[in-house]
Specification:
Low-confidence stretches: 126-147, 284-297
Radius of gyration: 32 Å
CATH architecture of the largest domain: 2-Layer Sandwich
Mean pLDDT: 77
Number of domains: 3
Strand content: 15-25%
Order of helices and strands: EHEHEHEHEHHEEHEEEHHHHH
CATH class of the largest domain: Alpha Beta
Distance between the termini: 101 Å
Helix content: 40-55%
Structural class: alpha/beta
Shape: flat
Number of helices: 12
CATH superfamily of the largest domain: Dynein light chain 2a, cytoplasmic
Length: 356
């Protein structure tokens, strides 16, 4: 019997961990997958059956509500739990009327949450009796298979065309979403992956700073045995190619670098047809405009400086200032003499100071 499979989608890692650990207390054999974005969730759904989806409605790209709508088209029997930490009443009303099987507001009542998951486990073997609903589900699964094969075929073709050892579609954390070829050995080095994905993230920010509506970059890393191409495919996914250095020359490297933008566009079209991306989530989020208060920061700073000067004037008496300068003037010349300095008269004689 296939294990009950749960997909958790939340951009906060701690939330995903808490939900995962809680569900595993019910049954350690439950197969749990967790991802931080709706785009990655669609890729997971397209590759394997999912019994229960738990999703935060507020995600960086596709929202939880939009994900639920797309996933249910492919599999109407899939159960959905929506979670949100937003206090906006309009949003809460949307969650309540969304048609989800259950919904919870953060902070989640874990006891009630696990009670619901347990009820899903208890009824997981029930098969819908409605034949029409079964046909819809079968058609959705067939459509999903077509999309999955389309992505796999595309990556395989790309691997052959680029003469690459491996072609990977990865998320912003380096997690492999799809691949063609043997996994490169660098994926056993956590330090390398962390550095690679940090660079990947900064490339996104650079593209945004330059005015791009989505990341457009191509990174090349030369190694002794293998070299790597890395490019954004939309806002949250990346295309990583591993090539054998011995089988490539400089001309082929530069030729491939020029062709990668076209490969990215083709792959982006495949992902869009799968529903991973849409016109609404291909653009990078516009940063919120910071509205300054009526009193400018400069005026605030001057006000604070005035207060400091006033406090200083109260503490330092005029006679103390005079005494300080008198003590300086009374110091021995040797104490004031520096080997790397000359007097004003010497500077004037050398033409380094203006005549009085």
């Amino acid at each position: 019997m296939q294990a009950f499979r749960v997909l958790i989608i939340d951009d906060q890692r701690d939330v995903r961990r808490v939900l995962r650990d809680g569900i595993l207390t019910l049954d350690a054999s439950i197969d749990i997958i967790d991802v931080p974005s709706g785009e990655e969730a669609i890729l997971v759904i397209s590759r394997q059956p999912i019994d229960l989806i738990i999703v935060d409605i507020r995600l960086p790209g596709i929202s939880g509500l939009e994900l639920m709508e797309r996933a249910q088209i492919r599999n109407p029997n899939m159960k959905f739990v929506l979670i949100t930490g937003m206090d906006n009443q309009k949003v809460r009303d949307q969650v309540a009327s969304s048609g989800a099987d259950a919904y919870f507001f953060k902070p989640i009542n874990i006891s009630e949450f696990l009670d619901y998951v347990q009820s899903c486990l208890s009824s997981s073997e029930l098969v819908p009796s409605d034949s029409e609903e079964e046909n819809v589900s079968e058609e959705a699964d067939e459509e999903s298979d077509i999309y999955t094969r389309g992505l796999s075929d595309h990556l395989s073709s790309l691997r052959q065309e680029m003469d690459a050892v491996c072609v990977l579609l990865i998320d912003e954390h380096g997690q492999i979403m799809a691949q063609a070829g043997n996994l490169p050995e660098v994926y056993g080095d956590e330090g390398f992956i962390a550095s690679l994905m940090a660079t990947f993230s900064f490339a996104s920010k650079v593209s945004y700073s330059l005015g791009s509506d989505q990341p457009q970059d191509m990174l090349f890393f030369a190694g002794q045995r293998k070299s790597y191409f890395l490019a954004h495919v939309g806002p949250s996914l990346g295309l990583l190619l591993a090539i054998e250095v011995s089988s490539w020359d400089d001309e082929q490297t530069w030729s491939s670098m020029r062709s990668i933008p076209d490969k990215v566009r083709d792959l982006l079209s495949v992902l869009t047809s799968m529903g991973v991306y849409s016109e609404s989530n291909l653009e990078l989020p516009v940063p919120e405009t910071v509205v300054l208060e009526e009193e400018s920061s400069t005026e605030v700073a001057l006000t604070e400086l005035d207060a400091i000067f006033k406090q200083t004037q109260k503490k330092i008496k005029p006679e103390d200032v005079d005494a300080f300068w008198d003590s300086i003037a009374a110091e021995e010349p040797d104490e004031l003499t520096r080997t790397d300095a000359i007097s004003y008269d010497q500077a004037r004689q050398l033409g380094l100071a203006p005549e009085e």
